[in-house]
Amino acid sequence: MKYLLTITLASLLYCCTQPEKHAPLVEDTAHLRDSSMAPFYHGVASGDPLYSQVIIWTRVTPEDSLPEVDVVWEIAADDSFQEIIKTGTVTTDPGRDYTVKIDVDGLSEGQKYFYRFHALGKSSMIGRTKTASIKPQNLMFGVVSCSNYEWGYFNSYGALAQENLDAVIHLGDYIYEYAPGGYGDTTLGRSPIPNKEIITLQDYRSRYSQYRLDKDLIAAHANHPFINIWDDHEIANNSYKDGAQNHQPDEGSYEERKNIARQVFYEWIPIRESDQHYRKLQFGDMADLIMLDERLERTFIADSLGDPTLMDSSRTMLGKEQLLWFTTQLKVSQAKWKVVGNQVIYSYLNWGHEDFTINLDSWDGYPIEQQQIADVIKSKPVENVVFITGDTHTAWAFESTNKPFDEYNQETGEGAFAVEFGTTSINSANSNESYSDSVVLVHENRITDSPVNPHLKWTNMRDHGYMILTLTEDRAMATWKFMKTIEEPSLEIKEVKNIWMNSGEVKLQSN
Ligand SMILES: [Fe+2]
Questions:
Q1: Could you say which residues form the signal peptide (predicted)?
Q2: Cβ within 8 Å of residue 29, ≥6 positions away
């Protein structure tokens, strides 16, 4: 009897220590993977650099639907990992879509680091990152927005990967939510996944997975820390606190969709997680980078210039709390440059089309708050404020002033209180997708020469690419780099434009 019992226990033990069988992990983006990168097909990423901390990120994709995967991470001072500064193990699971995010601390300021991951017997590619400097001689930020997989190749990300930068500031529209053909060039074979507008948790996860399997975006993330903020398309077009233009009642609860979009953004983006998305990153005495959330705190977008709520003081882009936080950051900043990571255009702009003049989705649709910010900057006064802006798929340079421009001298810049540099899109459509270059050039000249936009110094509504913001003791310079094409893979840059302001003067200059 005893003998039998022993056998039974032994067989039970044997049965229970057998590796559990799991179903294969089936993903609709699997055909886009580079098998040589298994199981770290999505590469590596880093973000939100502080003086002694940086986020590192990866995603592990097991062949089977494992309930958990252990991932070892390492960060080193050299790319051969002879001098490992820190290492650890974390566990990921399907609850966070097998993504891995570590906020590595105890690092030195202004240092370059290398990092990698190990799991399931394999190693990831090596990523490069950098902590913020306390006393930088200069700072170089890549500034980007609006990448739409279907509109073309991510050549701009590929070229950006090769730049020597402190960080990349991503101002949003990192993904787009549309169904195939909803907003894109369907001739290029870059149809969005899944094959529908994204609404559910799995939809958003698949869309991020597709974008993050793009080799150019993988290269950009692997080479630079990113500082991301969402715009509207990470949720749905023209989103605000309680709704979105592209969310209909038959698509379910907006609140639920917003929460899903937020969850997946935090899973896939190398961002430090917090209840409040707006935040400040400091780069010593050179720059404070103030990242604003201009979507999910805002009240609804006005229908027209005749909307009776337009001048209502309850109309808000930032919400009371964020507005107070922002204006306080401007007032207390000791840094030379106050850089505002801004999604939609802050400066007044008349687009000059017969059927479209003022964009009520931008700060012009929130005029009371727009003025309150101007008043804070002018009354303190706060020097050297640089708005960097995404959203419009167009490059811009403004000397920011208030209407009716009666205090502004467009020759000397006197009366302007800040500058605004807008980056064009990585590849989302602008005027060039609808009209020839010559037609668009005529319009660019018309609106920059127009007396209704005396403070608009330059624009390019034709091209795609990225901007580099270079900050030194003496000046803040925007350099726009425009790609030759987005219709085939190519890292060729066809044109470069520089515009800058000298410290203490709001007067834009160019060469
Ligand atoms: Fe966009």
A1: none
A2: 193, 206, 209, 210, 213
What single DSSP character describes residue 249? Answer: G
172 torsion bin: left (phi>0), alpha (psi -120 to 50), beta (else)? left
pLDDT, tens digit (0-9, with 9 covering 90-100), for 229-271: 999 999 999 999 999 999 999 999 999 999 999 999 999 999 9
Name residues whose C-beta falls within 8 Å of residue 511's C-beta, 6 or more positions apart in sequence. 498
Helix (H) or strand (E) holding 86: strand 84-92
pLDDT tens column, 353-365: 999 999 999 999 9
Question: From ligand 1's centre to the CA of 444, what distance in Å?
Answer: 19
Output the CA 96–ligand 1 centroid distance in Å.
26
Pairing state of beta strands 139-144 and 465-471? Answer: antiparallel
pLDDT digits (tens, 9 = 90+) for 377-406: 999 999 999 999 999 999 999 999 988 898
Rounded average pLDDT over 281-310: 95
Q: How far is the CA of 172 from the centre of ligand 1 (A)?
A: 7
- How far does residue 364's CA lie from ligand 1's centre (Å)? 18
Nearest by Cα to 29 from 260, 214, 184, 178: 214
Residue 234 Cα to chain centre, angstroms = 10
Q: 55 alpha carbon to ligand 1 midpoint, in Å?
A: 26
**CA–centroid distance, residue 391 to ligand 1 (Å):** 5
Query: Distance from the CA of 277 to the center of ligand 1, in angstroms?
Result: 19
The CA-CA-CA angle for residues 455, 362, 391, to 5°, reads 95
Ligand 1 geometric centre to CA of 411 (Å): 32
The domain spans of the chain are: 30-130, 139-510
Distance 268 CA to ligand 1 centre (A): 19
Q: Which CATH number fits domain 139-510: 3.40.50.300, 3.30.1640.10, 3.40.1440.10, 3.60.21.70?
A: 3.60.21.70
Q: What is the pLDDT of residue 487?
A: 97
| b/e burial code for range 485-498 (CB count within 10 A of at least 16 → b) | ebeeeebebeeebe
Q: How far is the CA of 507 from the centre of ligand 1 (A)?
A: 28
Architecture of domain 30-130: Sandwich (2.60)
456-460 vs 395-400, strand pairing mode: antiparallel
**Fold agreement (30-130, 139-510):** no
pLDDT reported for residue 511: 84
Distance 189 CA to ligand 1 centre (A): 20
Distance 152 CA to ligand 1 centre (A): 14
Distance 162 CA to ligand 1 centre (A): 24
The Å distance, Cα 235 to ligand 1 centre, comes to 12
pLDDT bin (cut points 50, 70, 90) of residue 19 is low
> What confidence tens digit (pLDDT) does each residue in 60-119 have?
999 999 999 999 999 999 999 999 999 999 999 999 999 999 999 999 999 999 999 999
